[in-house]
UniProtKB/TrEMBL annotation, chain A:
All copies of domain EIPR1-like beta-propeller, residue ranges: 8-296
Pfam families: Beta-prop_EIPR1, WD40
Name recorded for this polypeptide: EARP complex and GARP complex interacting protein 1
Origin: domain of life: Eukaryota
Membership in a protein family: Belongs to the WD repeat EIPR1 family.
Region: Disordered, residue numbers: 99-118, 313-333
Keywords recorded for this protein, A-Z: Repeat, WD repeat
Gene: LOC110498063
GO BP annotations listed: protein ubiquitination; regulation of cellular localization; regulation of transport
Ranges occupied by WD repeats: 221-257
UniProt-listed Gene3D superfamilies: YVTN repeat-like/Quinoprotein amine dehydrogenase (2.130.10.10)
Coiled coil: none
Compositional bias segments (type: Basic and acidic residues): 102-113, 320-332
From TrEMBL, chain B:
Protein encoded by which gene: LOC110509989
Keyword Coiled coil in record: yes
Subcellular compartments: Golgi apparatus, trans-Golgi network; Recycling endosome
Protein name, UniProt field: Vacuolar protein sorting-associated protein 51 homolog
Species of provenance: Oncorhynchus mykiss (Rainbow trout)
InterPro entries registered for this protein in UniProt: Cullin_repeat-like_dom_sf (IPR016159), Vps51 (IPR014812)
Domain of life, per lineage: Eukaryota
Amino acid sequence: MYQLYFVLQARALTSQTAESDAIRFLVGTQSLKFDNQIHIIDFDDENNIISKSVLQHQAGEIWHISASPADKAVLTTCYNKTSESRVVTCGAVWRMPPEWESGSHESPDDPHNSHNPQNLELLCHLDNSSHGNASCVLWEPMGDGKHVISLADNHALLWDLTESSTQATISSSATLEGKGQLKFTAGKWSPHHNCTQLATANDTAIRGWDLRTMSQIYCIENAHGQLVRDLDFNPNKQYYLASCGDDCKVKFWDVRNINEPVKTLEEHSHWVWSVRFNHSHDQLVLTGSSDSRVILSNMVSISSEPFGHLVDDDDLSDGEDNHQDEKTKEPLQDSIISTYEEHEDSVYAVEWSSADPWLFASLSYDGRLVINRVPRALKYHILL
Amino acid sequence: MDGDINATAPGTTPPDSDPARKRRVHGMLKLYYGLNEEGKTVDQAESMDPCDINGPHFDPEVYLNKLRRECSLGELMDQETCMVKQIRSLDSDMQTLVYENYNKFISATDTIRKMKNDFKKMEDEMDCLSTNMASITDFSARISGTLQDQHAQITKLSGVHTLLRKLQFLFELPARLNKCLELQAYAQAVSSHRRARCVLQQYSHMPSFRGIQDDCHAIMDKLAQELRQKFRDGGSSAKDLSECVELLLQLDEPAEELCDKFLSHAQSRLEADLLGLEAETDILEFIDRGCNEFVSSLCLVIASYQELFVNRPQEGELASKNIPQMAIGKLHAFVDALATRYFSLVERRIQEEKSVGDNSLLVRALDRFHRRLQAVAKLLPGSAVPSQGTEIVVRAARERIKQYLAALQSFYLNSLTDVRQALAAPRLATGKDAPASLPELLSTLSASILNQIKSVLASVHLFTAKDITFSNKPYFKGEFCSHGVRESLVVNFIMFVCQSSRQFCESAGDRGGSTPPALLLLLSRLCLDYETSTITYILTLTDEQFLVQHHSPVTAVTALCGEAREAAQKLLNHYVKVQGLIISQMLRKSVETRDWVNTIEPRNVRAVMKRVVEDTTSIDVQVGLLYEEGVRKAHSSDSSKRTFSVYSSSRQQTRYAPSYTPSAPMDTNLLSNIHKLFSERVEIFSPVEFNKVSVLTGIIKISLKTFLECVRLRTFGRYGLQQIQVDCHYLQMYLWRFVSDENLVHFLLDEIVGSTAHRCLDPAPMEQSVIEVICERG
């Protein structure tokens, strides 16, 4: 377990999606008084050293951050802009200055060095003032970094980024119609079906959208007893979706049968703000909650590897083969692997590393980032 | 000399009367005549004293000398006189004896002489007799010789006579049989025919006899035909029937066929009975009719059948055919087939008996049903019918238990619906009639359930009443009580109560709390009461009533209690969650819908806060009705007046210190974190205890945490912060009294104000005194 403190409070966390070698997380701060920053957290796995770089994000406090899957240097933020007693949430695409790595590198032990952090370079605004406040921006998974979706109040907007992402045009949009003030609270772009599907959450409902026609394909009414806070797609099973919310539950859905969740976890003692499948081993599910806990669960029964890691017969000699058989016959049960209680305040974001599947970070409101590893025993159990 | 002896010995005793003396006299006589064989021994015993006057060696000389030497004169004189006297008496005795014996000799001689004469005469007569006898013998022999021939003739004649009479009987037989047939005196005909049959059979080679035999056969065939007809018609009485059968058997009719006919005949009648049964509607009447018509006729059939075929003493060739075995076999098959049909009817009928109102009717019917089958058991010892009947009763009892369980369950659900309505009613019609309070509802609910259980137990108990025939069957003694009543009925019902209560938690949680919270609270208390007392009471009651002997392992009281407690806990947790949610929603809406940046300076506590306090108070009252107060930590004396201020708390100072002291943000943040290390982690949706304070604490925790999280998502202007300050102070004033540890409220409210300050664009807090004034005014 490795901890890191920020001066400012923070909610926004993402791993640097396009980076597959270094373990790197991006954290966006929230402060109404100071210039907000994007902290680039590098974790040296071999030497167990955390290092941090800071970039200035002067546009406003960051509510959501998302890294481009194609270009390491490109990211989007959703930020609050306060002007004349009005608070507006905007989305923008940014580029990190190329020299950040060399320039403003700082040691976490010496925060006072960061006097002159470099600024982010604005590529373009996802200007949607006519559509309302942006709650999050989603990159096309595994895409070429040319498409993003922003969720703004009750609109889902599909943007095309052109000219090295300096131009953003709305190519299509969908609007949620209904009584009252509807507002998207969370969303996720499905990596399956050629990236043609989007899942969104508003209030207690989860909706699926077909991006080709921008029409709703399914709707799980009352997916949670209260507000749905986050969604994630199972990276290996195309119809499986996890959701979490204010009813303290984490639910797993098969969107082909939306009447009942496939599985429900009820381990947290307050709202669950974030849920993430491990990118490689989808039985590993990470959840963060405002009860200040992070829980790592092993959802074997609904994973894509329900019988453990599949091993080719060719790879094994006969003796090992038998051994393997015995092992796979063990009844595999869903279980809580670990509960991490390092945080003192509500945990609003958890994220797996995109480079190392056994590593994850969690961020609590008081500005504490905690990096943890999947327990070694479990890792070997999954691998062997 | 003898005389001397006699004279000296007697002394004073009178001579005649003494038997000893007489014997001695005899003995001396014998001695005198030399008859005595014992003489020698006497001799030896006698003294050899020559002076002994009675001894054999008496020497008068010695004796005299001795006397003269020893005695004086006087004595001699006396001796002499005595001696003389003795000699005289001896002489006279001797004379008498001689005389007597002489007379006897004379008369004996006379008698002998007379006898000699008589014998001579008799000899003559005897000779005469013997000659007479010889002549008589002679005569007799001569007579018998003459009569010999005639006697032989007579014997022969008498033989012919008998034969003729038999022949006459034979010749008359056809006519007689015909007559019998006409008169319907079948028995006589059969017995006549039977007598003649052998003879006819034997002499059938003779044409005349053959004619007779043929005639007889023809007649008897006709008779048999008629008998069969009669048998088949069946209108006749049992006695007639049995006579019929008997005759037919004697006529060599195959017994098997008869059995079949008899049974098929009986079957048609019994089936008619069964058909009649199907129309019956009332269960008791149905069973009555079944018993009275079907079972009793079945018994009658069995009895008469056994009379006819089984128990009849077998004679002659019939005995060899082993009829009883065959007949019994047929009877069993017959009874089994019919009983199966009867049972299926009964079972169908019993299954229709769904109303659980009055069990006594069914039990009575079953009892009657079972009792009547015992008659069959007595009549037909090896039959499976009674045991099948018992099985039907057992099945019916099991079915009954299931029905009762279903009834109990629906009763429970109905009661719950009633309670719901009662809970909803006050809102619809306030004050019309005094709305039942929660404790009243609870007690009525619990009492009505208990009553229902008791009445069901009483109903079921009828099955085991002493006067019911099947109650002493092993099933009803053991399994019915333990497995049936205790487990299937009572335990299952309790489980059902717990489970259905839990369902309220599960279904309501996701689908927007359709269950009124008061019902949750009430059910929770109900389950808790079950855990503490009711379950034990019900099970003890059951065990006592049914004398349950636990053959198989049964659910333990503790397991059930655990179940109930779990349900109670779950319900209460859910209650807390639902109530917390309701207040949470109010707070959340109030935070989310307001523009906190552009709000005006606070003049009042917001209405929603008052509403929160009001609701909390009413929840407090509601919970207080059912649950005890519980313990709370000691309050500081001025809890309500606690100077609640962002600034007074050093923690809060550091919390948003960065705004004022940007130079050392890290330290303050560290301080805040260190502070948090020492404050206890607050579990928000944590299980509560069964008391009011714990419940209220849970609700307030949930509400305030929601408030906190919502505040963190917003941005505030100066007055927004101030408004939150006012609101929090107001909450602080009123909420502390409900919770177990007021520090918890302080902590959460501190967090809220701290977070608000942090989310504030222009954090200029309000003066504490002003806040107090505003709150007190509101």
